[in-house]
Write a structure and sequence with these properties.
This protein is an alpha/beta fold. 31% of the residues lie in helices and 19% in strands. Strands 1-2-4-3-5-8-6-7 form an eight-stranded mixed sheet, with helices on both faces. Helix 2 links the parallel strand 3 and strand 4. The chain starts with 13 loop residues before the first helix and ends in a 14-residue tail after the last helix. The model is unreliable at 269-277 (pLDDT under 50).
């Protein structure tokens, strides 16, 4: 709701910068009191305009040099007026829904006192709609610095379903084969017992930020919404046209929690009475 209330989140507009800063502040609020959590605005992107990417880092307890990434892009665009910084582009599904999914995953994990053994980074990417610029800048920076990214989950458009279709779709291309197999196993272990179903679709091009990580040599994959939302990049990409509900995205938050639990190598916390949970 909040992110789609901006006139747009276009990378070259004032709204694009302000909305990114709001995400950082909101994530900081969720992580308040956690000394192992930091947030930053990533500005080392030469073609992202004034829009920064947002990175929240949860420091790993004993495998801090192994990094797990969950990402979604924070910008929006209207394809009819794509170069106008004052364009109307609410971008509720594309991709406020992905940022909301990451935010809910983060909120639940931290509220439960979760501590990963690996370092886990939540990322909101700038300037995806104009060529995956923000994610590419981060991925290439990490590659140049030798950061050991062991896995990347991308969520881009998570909130639309129409008809009797699978609850989410694995993107088949521009992704790491072993990680795709892991996503299938993860879904079948955690979500299938809840009655959820999965399918598979092909983008046919580098359709989201997972492709930036793949290009940089890191294992990345993406799960997409059940039905392709035909109102993306228009003035009507709003929550009203998705039933005024985030119910479809709830399943992606469940996937995100399973992902960080397994790939983050969740730390075993000793109970106060000395027994193990």
């Amino acid at each position: 709701n909040h992110l789609s209330s901006y006139r747009n989140r276009y990378y070259a507009s004032s709204y694009g910068k302000t909305s990114a800063e709001w995400i950082r502040t909101h994530w900081q609020t969720i992580a308040a009191g956690r000394s192992d959590v930091t947030t930053e605005l990533f500005t080392a992107c030469t073609n992202c305009g004034t829009q920064p990417s947002v990175i929240l880092t949860i420091q790993g307890t004993d495998l801090p040099n192994e990094v797990v990434v969950l990402g979604a892009h924070l910008d929006s665009i209207n394809s009819s007026t794509r170069n106008d910084p004052n364009q109307l582009a609410p971008g509720a599904d594309d991709d406020a829904s992905g940022i909301a999914t990451l935010t809910e995953t983060l909120r639940i994990a931290l509220a439960d006192g979760w501590q990963p053994r690996r370092t886990v980074k939540f990322m909101g990417y700038a300037a995806e709609e104009v060529g995956l610029r923000g994610s590419n800048a981060i991925a290439q920076s990490f590659r140049a610095s030798g950061v050991n990214v062991v896995s990347v989950l991308q969520v881009d458009m998570t909130n639309y379903k129409s008809g009797a279709v699978a609850d989410m779709n694995l993107i088949s291309d521009y992704s790491n084969a072993a990680l795709k197999n892991f996503f299938v196993a993860l879904f079948d272990a955690y979500l299938a017992p809840m009655g959820l179903t999965r399918g598979s679709v092909t983008c046919g091009y580098a359709c989201s930020d997972h492709a930036s990580w793949t290009s940089a040599g890191y294992p990345a994959a993406m799960m997409a919404e059940p039905t392709f939302f035909t109102r993306l990049h228009t003035t009507t990409d709003t929550l009203a046209y998705m039933g005024d509900s985030a119910a479809v995205s709830v399943n992606f938050a469940k996937l995100g929690l399973a992902f960080v639990g397994e790939l983050g190598k969740t730390h075993t916390v000793r109970r106060r009475n000395g027994s193990q949970p």
